[in-house]
Amino acid sequence: MRYRLGFSSNKDSSSVYIECSIRKPGVKHPVREIIKRFGKKKDLLAKDPAALQKIQEEVDRMNLNCEGRKLLSTPTSLESLSKDLSELLQRQTLDPSAVFCTRSAGYLILRRLYDELKLDAKFNYIATKGSFKYDLAKIAKELILLRILAPSSKRRSSIEGPERYLGMQFDNLNQIYKALDVLCANKSDIIRYWNRQINKLVPDRDTSICLYDITTYAFESTDQDALRDFGYSKDKKFNEVQVVMALATDKQGLPLDYGLYKGNQAEGATMVPFVSELKKKFNVKSFTVVADRGLNSQANIDSLVKLGDNYVLASKIRGASSDIQREVLSEQGRVPIQKVSEDGEVLDFGWYKEIQLSGPISYESPEYVFEDGDEEKEKQLEKRLNHTKTKSGKYVKSQLKRRLIVTWSEARARKDRTDRERLIKKAQELVGKPSKIKTSFKRGGRSFILLDMDLETAKINESLIAAQEQFDGIHVIETSLSAPASEVVKIYKNLWRIEDSFRHLKSTFEARPVYLRLPDHVRGHFLICFLALCVHRYLEYKLRANNTPATTDGIIRGLNRATISLINPTSGIEFYGTAGFDSTVQNIMNLVGLTPPNTYEEPSALRKKMRLYTSVRDLFSSTTTSLEN
Questions:
Q1: Which segments within 41-140 are labelled E, that is strand?
Q2: CB atoms within 10 A of CB 607
Q3: Which residues pair with 34 in a beta bridge?
Q4: Where are any strands of DSSP class E within 470-525?
């Protein structure tokens, strides 16, 4: 269909109009239809000698728009779109304000999920209560979602975020830093609100099991302060200051809470106070605490039992007493087990046995550390535990029943042998070059080296190798639960979820290195990282529940690759091209109430599918680039 400038006759008194030819049902030939009337020719020219020229320009624009709509509805590929655009643009002078711009749609999609948690309401309440004059909800949302999509420093985020993601408009850096202070001051309330919201959205959430672990985060700095300090680094960054982070999740991997401690804090002193505070926040009487062997100590176990909690902890068999080692190595009580595939193929085999112990224990009086350093809380905890101490007060005496579940598998034995052989090889290299046996003598391959008085006497410790070989393939779990051994082992195996959370916090969400200096800014940064983990875990949960699971890398890669392109070659033609909306992104969009777009979309249709309250063009307005630039 093409529009034309029409006249009723050749006379000056003829009427002027825009017409076109259309086909009507039942009529074999085209029918003329008047689209718009302008009046008498002579009257128009009397008012404006260029009137007919202007009307013709309007006709041209209408035809261009018609071509654009036809082009939008018919292209079969990007190549055909480019060809049609080229032909279209060759027929007129290119508008100097023409715009072609591409942005990622990841933020718009993830924002829909974020809004389900209604975190904006909490942040708005905090801002109002504290007379915070900036838009705290907006700043927090953009910091959290960008931490998932493209983590970077706060400065870089404020610059590159709006340039890359459609719908993102960061505030200035000073406002971001002020927001971190406010977030830090309201950490407990925010986390309590997160748990309340997620409990509504995940009604089958089981918070009776608390997966707990500790890690460290390094700073590219050597400046110590009230929070940052040197300590044992799990990332082997011993020359940089760090902070210690404790994290707790439920058995599905949905975060419960976290704590941030000074960089030199020993991990064992954090668990009991952390769990005690967590029970108050959830108003529960007890948890089943699941943790790795680094947190297994008589002090922690005795304290958890006295507080009414259960535990499932890995146990250090090589550092256990000789009596326990003898029981573990004894063949008596072993029950054979097999791991079999769906096809009946034996994938692995092994055995398990149980050891029951009971008797008096004695350990050094523990020091408990709360995140906020509140000494009054420490006194209250000591009162609740009511430890029986020796006269000197240096040791605690107690009675403890212990249940050990010992498992052995061929696969684990092979791994243990391989790991030790690698370290022995390194030790042999060091014995050949004694000058390298200097620092960290007992770490890694150096642990297999014996020394007398000087480095030249170095030799391989064969007795240590033989002692360790006895325990290849053996793993020990200590628990207070009375459930069958298979159930206890299954509970313990959920611990991979919290280890996976730390891995994503450190690598995917780049929680470290930390480029902030002030303690409150650092604490605000880690709250943002924690909330980013919360949002992401909620998304993973929804995908699993929908039988469309996806990996973390697949989710983030898909969201970043999903792009929307503004195509505005000339006045009257505006539409959008989309790319990268793979199956994972489409599944996410369906879950959050969005409609995956077609390859080419009109503005109104795309706005409806993306559930936007403003035009798509307005989202591009702050960062679009015209051809005249």
A1: 99-104
A2: 19
A3: 19
A4: 474-479
What single DSSP character describes residue 168? -
d(CA 198, CA 205): 8
| Cα(446)–Cα(434) distance, integer angstroms | 11
pLDDT(314) > 80: yes
Residue 528 CA to residue 152 CA, distance in Å, equals 12
Residue pair 264/229 in contact by the 8 Å Cβ criterion: yes
Structure tokens given for 446: 């150096």
pTM listed for this prediction: 0.81
Q: What is Dmax (Cα atoms) for the chain?
A: 122
Instruction: Assess whether pLDDT exceeds 60 at residue 587.
Output: yes
Q: Which residues of 29-63 are buried (b: 16+ CB within 10 A; e: fewer)?
A: eeeeeeeeebeebeebeeeeeebbeebeeebebbb
pLDDT tens, position by position, 526-555: 999 999 999 999 999 999 999 999 999 999
Q: How many CB atoms lie within 10 A of CB 344?
A: 6
Q: From the CB of residue 597, how many other CB atoms can be counted at a distance below 10 Å? A: 21
Cα 123 to chain centroid distance, Å, stands at 20
DSSP tag of 458: -
Whether the link from the prior residue into 513 is cis, omega within 30° of 0, is yes
Find tokens 């029951």 and name the residue: 356
- Nearest-angstrom CA–CA distance, 193 and 126: 12
- For 490, the enclosing helix (H) or strand (E) is helix 485-493
- Please spell the DSSP secondary structure of 525-584, one letter per residue: HHHHHHHHHHHHHHHHHHHHHTT----HHHHHHHHHH-EEEEEEEETTEEEEEEE---HH
19 burial level (CB within 10 Å; 0-12, 13-18, 19+):
middle
